[in-house]
Structure formats: structure tokens, C-alpha cells
Recover the amino acids of this structure.
């Protein structure tokens, strides 16, 4: 199974690039499954039902999310009514949506799980240990399919690496999201788990992780009144492409991708 996992899509510039590139991938039948993190798809802050439906229409099969979804609380119910749009599994159980899904593609079943780290992460949405929650649910997921892809949405590199050791050989791929900066440590463990600490972002790179630099610098200088503004220039897609043996669930390759708007 050939999978593309696209890093956090940021605002309209990111959405437009995804629409263009994913259309091409679908037309050329390049991937069996396309996953994307959509927590910043709505102007950089959260995700709307309309935006999630757009991503599905572009050809994204699964949308994972993270902390930013509470920027648009009024959208939560609508967003998570859409099939294969998931939120971190370790949010409190009353939070709308679910933490994993199973997708059928060309006769193959693939589970996608969303987790969120707890180190240096905002207090809301409330979350418990991703390590405990995945341990409690992994057997049920493994009973359904050996192909398991996990989005670990977290700030701390060490927490993501700890999860890599914790889930080594138990899942096909563990893909880090949230920091918006792609790391150069993609690898496959001896037990067959594809890994990257952070897949990066899809949006304007002439920015501070997607936002116009000036208001953020003002904030660091103590001025908290300025509104953050979505940046526009140097739009790129960050992603990883990996292959999974669909009988064993073991990853066989992983490749980092960074594509600029005009290529
Ligand atoms: Fe993000
Ligand atoms: Fe995030």
C-alpha cells in the first residue's frame, strides 16, 4: 500500500496547493491512500465542516487534527460527522468525534489513529496520556487490520521519539505533526515501523510557522493586542510518502517530500 501523509495544511494558500497536487496524484494513481492533518485549514485556526468537505473532495481520504480544532468550537459537531475525519484519541471521551477510523482501499483495510502529546501542549482540549490510551485500544485496532498509521500531534521531539519506541513494530507508521517544521529523521525501524518526528506544514513558508512574522514578533516584545495574520508567500507542501506491505503491515520505505507552489 502506497500512502501519502501531508503535514498541517495552513489556510487558503495551503488548501489551494493541496487541491492542485492531490488532483495530480489522484489522476496519476500515485497513492492508494492520502491522509492530511487539517487542524489549521481554516485561515490557520481550526477546521470548518466546509473546509473538511473540500479536502475530501480534493481526494484526501482521511483528515487528522489536533489542538487548533477548538479555535472553532461551533464547527466541531459538523466536522466530526464527516466520515474519516478524526481527532486525538486521548481527548476526554465527551469531546466530539472519535480517535481512529478504518478505511477500505482496493480491498485493503487500513486503520488511522490520531494521538496528541501532553508535553508543552495547551491545556484545552483536555487530554490524558497518549501512551495509556493507545495501549488500551491497540489490540482492538490490530484485530481489524495489520496496517496502522498513527498521527502523533505533539510539540516535544522527545515525546514523539518515546512513542516511536513504545509502538515499535506494533504499528506500520508513526508520523509526527504540529510543529510545522519538517525534521530530517525519517526512518524505518528494524521491526518495520516508518517514522518521522515531524512531517512539516503545507502553507506559506515566508512566515513564522504559517503566520505573518510581524504580529508574532510584537507579541514576543510584549504587545499582545495585535491579531495574528495568515502569511501568503512561498507556499510549499510538506509530506511523507511511505509503502506498507499489506500482508504483514510492515513499512518498507519512507521518503520526505517538499514541493513548492510553482513546480
Ligand atoms: Fe498545526
Ligand atoms: Fe497543533
Amino acid at each position: 500500500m502506497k500512502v501519502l501523509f501531508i503535514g498541517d495544511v495552513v489556510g487558503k494558500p495551503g488548501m489551494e496547493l493541496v487541491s492542485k497536487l492531490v488532483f495530480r496524484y489522484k489522476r496519476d494513481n500515485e497513492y492508494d491512500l492520502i491522509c492530511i492533518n487539517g487542524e489549521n485549514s481554516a485561515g490557520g485556526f481550526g477546521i470548518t465542516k466546509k473546509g473538511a468537505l473540500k479536502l475530501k473532495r480534493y481526494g484526501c481520504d482521511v483528515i487528522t487534527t489536533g489542538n487548533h480544532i477548538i479555535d472553532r468550537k461551533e464547527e466541531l459537531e459538523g466536522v466530526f460527522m464527516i466520515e474519516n475525519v478524526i481527532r486525538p484519541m486521548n481527548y476526554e471521551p465527551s469531546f466530539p468525534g472519535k480517535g481512529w477510523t478504518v478505511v477500505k482501499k482496493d480491498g485493503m483495510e487500513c486503520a488511522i489513529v490520531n494521538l496528541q502529546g501532553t508535553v508543552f501542549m495547551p491545556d484545552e482540549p483536555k487530554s490524558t496520556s497518549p501512551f495509556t490510551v493507545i495501549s488500551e485500544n491497540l489490540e482492538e485496532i490490530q484485530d481489524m487490520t495489520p496496517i496502522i498509521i498513527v498521527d502523533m500531534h505533539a510539540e516535544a521531539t522527545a515525546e514523539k521519539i518515546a512513542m516511536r519506541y513504545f509502538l515499535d513494530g506494533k504499528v506500520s507508521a508513526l508520523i509526527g505533526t504540529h510543529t510545522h517544521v519538517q525534521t530530517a529523521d525519517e526512518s524505518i525501524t528494524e521491526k518495520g515501523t516508518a517514522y518521522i518526528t515531524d512531517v512539516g506544514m503545507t502553507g506559506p513558508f515566508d512566515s513564522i510557522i504559517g503566520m505573518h512574522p510581524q504580529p508574532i514578533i510584537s507579541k514576543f516584545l510584549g504587545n499582545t493586542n495585535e491579531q495574528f495574520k495568515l502569511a501568503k508567500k512561498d507556499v510549499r507542501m510538506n509530506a511523507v510518502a511511505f509503502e506498507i506491505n499489506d500482508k504483514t503491515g510492515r513499512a518498507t520505505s519512507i521518503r520526505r517530500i517538499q514541493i513548492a507552489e510553482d513546480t
User: Anything to note?
Assistant: The chain has six helices and 13 strands.
